Amino acid sequence: MTLLDRNENDMAVVTSARTGAKKRTSHRRVDKTFYAFLLPGLVLFTLAITLPAVMGIFYSFTNSVGFGEFSFTGFINYIALFSDPSIRSAYGFTIGFALVTVAVVNAVAFLLAIGLTARIRAKVAMRAVFVLPMVVSGIVIAYAFNFLFSNSIPAAANALGFGPLESSLLANPNWAWVAIVIVTAWQAIPSTILIYIAGILAIPSDVYEAAALDGASAGRQLRSITVPLTAGYILINVIIGFKNFLNSYDIIVGLTNGGPGTSTTSIAMSIFQGFTNGDYAYQMANATIFFLIAIVIALLQLRTTRGRASL
Amino acid sequence: MNPKPPLPVPGLSRRSFLIGAGALGAGFALAGCAAPGGSASGVTEISFYVSKPEVIGYFDTLIAKFHKSQARVRVVRDSTSNMSADFVRNSPPDLGCWNYNFSVVEFVERGALSDLGDMPEAATINPDIKPLLKETADYPGRTSAIPYSLTAASVLYNKDLFTKYGVAVPTTYDDLVAACETFQKAGIAPFFNTYKDTWTIAQGLFDYTIGGMVDVPDFFKRLRAEGTKVDAASSVSFQKDFRSAMDRMVQLGSYANKNAASRGYGDGNLAFAKGEAAMYLQGPWALNEIAKTNAKMNVGTFPLPVTNDPKDLKVRVNVDLALWIPEASKKKEAARSFLSFLMQPEIQNTYNADNNAFGTTKNAPPTTNPALVGMQKYYDDAAFYLGASQIIPSEIPVANYAQSIALGSKPEPVLRQLDGDWSRLALRS
Amino acid sequence: MSTQIPLATSTATGELAGTDADSVTTRRAGGRGERVNWPVTIVLIICSLAILVPLYVTLTMAFKTTSQAVDGNAFSLPAPFSVDGFVQAWNLTTFPRSFAISIGVSALTVVGTIILSSFAAFAISRNWNRRFFRWSFYYLLAALFLPFPVVALSQVKLTGLVHLDNPLGVAILHIMFQLGFSVLLFTAFLRSIPDELEESARLEGATTGQVFWQLIFPLLAPMSATVGIFAFLASWNDFVMPSLITSNPALQTLPVLQQIFQTQFSNNYNVSFASYLMAMAPAILVYLFTQRWVMAGVTQGAIK
User: Fold this and answer.
1) For residue C83, is it within any domain?
2) Which CATH number belongs to the domain containing residue C190 in this structure?
3) C153 contacts A287? CB cut-off 8 A
4) What are the boundaries of the signal sequence (chain B) (predicted)?
């Protein structure tokens, strides 16, 4: 998602700085036109987002399948939920997957960003290539990779006599998640790179000049200058990435559809599947829990970013 | 790209941007208008849902025929809607033609399907088939669906390979294992399995081994009686009653093609048609697909022996297609007229003959397909069962569980999970 | 909705945003080609294979015949060169119609997002000291924390109820999910526009509406472009929302059709890849032409 908290903080700072100027106008009556500007968005938003969220919570206390007859069941769905190993494993998979992917994406993107800001040939073309995956639809690229994993790579491994890859990665319950990490990273690295490039370019070049004069090696410069001075960007990328990966769905649909077995079923997937399987109310309870977790993460994010007000 | 400041001059770019967007919007509006057919007066348009990929084209020709026979009702086929979503938004198809299994349970049991009991077609149904429907899902006092096509599934085998290696059709488990050994020694995969598509495991190895060892309807009857607590201690449970069948499933799985894990249904049809394996655990719906690759293939069928008593041999049946009309349909009469059209003996029987299925009416003719002859005897003796995977409610991802076992998970924890899922589901529904 | 494209605020100036900034930022290394870091260039070229190879496979597979496509060797060149896959995919997925629908949904999303969120942002930023507007801002932002699965199923029910279970409904929901993010961008941008400009316009008797349309909205153009590109990419590539909301499969967008036809493609890999390619190509083309804006959008965000 976004850096809204940072911006929120900025906003707070800025507005407090501006209150002096604004005070002047504050006792003036609000021009009604402003309501006309705000309300369409606000009303639609309430109908399209807030109302469904409330409805979902309501249904989580019933045994509804989404249509037809239903009755209230109190907290039964929640009780069943907490004792359900498949729900637990969906949370375990999703969180583990999100952590690994965040680490992979950020490590790779950071290194690529350093490369892309170095004195390289064909820089513009190179950046264009590295950003390209960002604009490709997740499910489409997942289907293309599905073919590579199921057919091409095993065929190539067979020809080369390379045992471990002769069977499809997607069919291995213990390793299929790796394929999902690869494709997710493939798609998520570009935007991460762009943010890192911005961070690296923001470092004044005289800092490097001074370091070079002091005889600091490239590795030393990376450790002592680039990483610390882009720490804020790293934090942002980690948080954005983690939030996005928790919602993973399309790439998994295209690669494993939650399998083999149920080994790569994400939270989002279990919620959507429950819907097609007539488990509406139960999965609404799941969604409610997921929402609570999202709120906790959001609050954590607010705290962390507040601590780093100056990027 | 040539260097240019990233912030362009405001006015111009905004206008061109909006004009462009407006033009696109207009194009969209036109496309939107052009899409659904206009409603000519006096004609009722009904939506007809049939998603079985093998027969979509077949039903298109039936629809064309129906349009020729009358001018009052027009049928629009839909093969891709999300059925649950359609019911949730209260806009289900006017006539459904779908598997009658776990996927319709909720529709039936929440009373979302209308009663067809008053239709003359309901009276023509073979009474032997009614228990199969009831076993799957039932709404008291209603005929929620009219069965259209019944398929019997067992092992498809390559007769030429069996002859070539002197293997007789096995009737006991030991014979089957011996046959597998023979083929394996000859460098031919005994089974071609397609674990990538979970449903193929559920309907194949999983259902066949269970159906061959467990009295399926009785098992589920007793399981339902257990209530909300099914575990190792209860008198009946997945972990107790399915255990030995799952062991057989694991053992037979070891005779599958090496790349089974990454193969799907399409790959399986292709490979079996090319003679890459001796046996293929698929239903008759695969026969026409196989024929596309190898029209002259010599295919036979036999029930999978899972015990050493030939008396236990049974074939798996399922109500492959059943017709139903949702309560929410506003065009029930028109839907009924198309239903009656489809149920005319010459149309229904032709469909079932063409698609290697069995009829559902009292006077449906027997099957004539030589490939299915191996199953006729069992079918006539009612030595058949509904696949366990068809009865387990859709809230439980049993096909995925079957896939776990096929791919090497130990059966015990998986069956334990099934017990747990069953209990939790009983608790909350 | 999984691809919300992130945005970074940067303290750096606008110059770093575009690729064109590179000539400036190539740290004082005199002319082009001088002291090129070849090892890094080579490593990057090798890394770029990870991106180019899958795209190459997509391209070549699409031009193969069915029998060549099925042989499993994804890396070979098409021989013979065949457009059969495209013809079949074109007909099977009714490409022109689904393309028009995808474009329509994306265009509505882009226009709707820009208009609604700039409206809201204008109202909010000019009345920040009023509780109602400030809280509205936080309220809209809350959507950024709301995982789509939480509301999806109820949205299916509701859109069905009001007969918006079609591309129009999808576009409206896309706009709503873009709203928080876009209001955030616009609000941040509006802060950078000095009050004096507006004050003087008002002194000349302009109404709030006139101030917005004649003064503010034109000034917002660069941010509108950024917001629009994000809205386009999110909408064009979205799979889950249309797949759930649109009831009539004939009105589905391109990504959803890939999933719908995945089983029907069966082993005709050339057909499936031709179809993938046709679904990808428009976004790639848009990207090639708006590259600078995309990159600027991600890195630049709120300029100040």
Assistant:
1) no
2) 1.10.3720.10
3) yes
4) 1-31
The CA-atom distances, in angstroms, between C100 and each of B25, B31, B263, C97, C174 are 10, 7, 35, 5, 17
Residues B214 and B245: beta-carbon distance below 8 Å: yes
Domain range for C98: 14-26+94-300
The CATH label, of 3.40.50.1010, 3.90.870.10, 3.40.190.10, 3.90.79.10, for the domain at B153-317+380-428 is 3.40.190.10
What is the dotted CATH code of the domain comprising B44-151+319-372? 3.40.190.10
Residue in A with minimal Cα distance to B113: A68
Question: Min CA distance, C140 vs chain B (Å)?
Answer: 25
Res B91: pLDDT: 84
Among residues B16, B6, A158, B52, which one has the least CA distance to residue C12? Answer: B6
Q: What three-state secondary structure class fits B244? A: helix
Core vs surface per residue C212-237: b (16+ CB within 10 A) or e? beebbbbbbbbbbbbbbbbbbbbbbb
Which residues have a Cβ under 8 Å from the Cβ of B412 and sit 6 or more positions away? Answer: B239, B243
Cβ distance A255 to A180 under 8 Å?
A: yes
Domain count, chain A: 1
What is the per-residue pLDDT across A43-52, written as a single tens digit (0 to 9) for each? 999 999 999 9
User: What is residue C34's predicted lDDT score, i.e. its pLDDT?
Assistant: 57
In terms of CA atoms, which chain A residue is nearest residue C60? Answer: A144
CATH of the domain at A183: 1.10.3720.10
**DSSP letters along B99-122, please?**
EESGGGHHHHHTT-B---TTSHHH
Say whether C267 and B266 touch across the interface (CB within 8 A): yes
Strands (E), chain A: none
User: For strand B95-100 and strand B44-50, is the pairing parallel, antiparallel, or unpaired?
Assistant: parallel
Give the pLDDT of residue A3. 35
CB contact under 8 A, B89 and C296: no
Residue C37: exposure state from Cβ atoms within 10 A (0-12, 13-18, ≥19): middle
Q: Is B382 left (phi over 0), alpha (psi -120 to 50) or beta?
A: left
pLDDT tens for each residue of B45-54: 999 999 888 7
Q: What is the pTM of this model?
A: 0.79
Q: Which chains touch B (3 or more CB pairs under 8 A)?
A: A, C
**Interface check B140 vs A, CB under 8 A:** no
Q: Rounded to a whole number, what is the distance in Å from the CA of C83 to chain B's nearest CA?
A: 22
Does the beta carbon of A100 lie under 8 angstroms from any beta carbon of chain B? no
- For residue C298, what pLDDT is reported? 63
- When pLDDT is cut at 50, 70 and 90, the band that residue C177 belongs to is very high
Q: How high is the ipTM of this complex?
A: 0.81
Interface test with B, best of C266, C270, C290 (most B CBs within 10 A): C266
Q: Check CB contact of B421 with chain A, cutoff 8 Å.
A: yes
| Chain B interface, best mutation among A89, A201, A277, A283, by max B CB count within 10 A | A277
Residues in chain A within 8 Å Cβ distance of C21: 201
- Give the structural domain span for A251: 4-9+84-307
